[in-house]
Predict the 3D structure of the following.
Amino acid sequence: MLVVLPGAGLTFAGCSSDDSGSGGADQGATTASESTDTKSDQSKTGNTGAGDKQTGGSGGGSSAAQPGQYVDYSPELVASTPGEKLLFFHADWCSQCVALVEDIEASGVPDGVTIFKVDYDSNQDLRQEYGVTIQTTMVKVDDNGEMIDSYVAYEDPTLDNVSAALLQ
């Protein structure tokens, strides 16, 4: 199965509906160029995502909430991003994760919220730090990266459910 999200620059290949983990990690992959394409698309629309945050931009001094963002995780970016922060532990081979990604991109991230994509398979230390044992886990963190709360969206992977659990 190949899912292409127009305008988002993301492609998910080989997504399985069986999330038992038997060989699942080898079933799908995204490339660094896809991430670069997403950032390139964002810069064309004026929403530069991670780029502005790393330079310490203040958003023009406006007191209005920053537009919602969906970006790749880095500890530096978490520390420098204003507003509410959610770490999304996802796996490309997880059908529930793919469904949640599609919903996030279709719905858009609420203003003042940044969702950081954390690869479930390659971030075991981070998973251990936050007690994450299943993909589709969202962890709300403060500016120092300390956990405030968490929610597992596995049973019903929608942004509305995540928002109700962590952003209300």
In short: DSSP finds six helices and seven strands in the chain. Confidence is low (pLDDT under 50) at residues 1-63. The longest helix spans residues 32-44. The two ends are 35 Å apart (CA to CA).
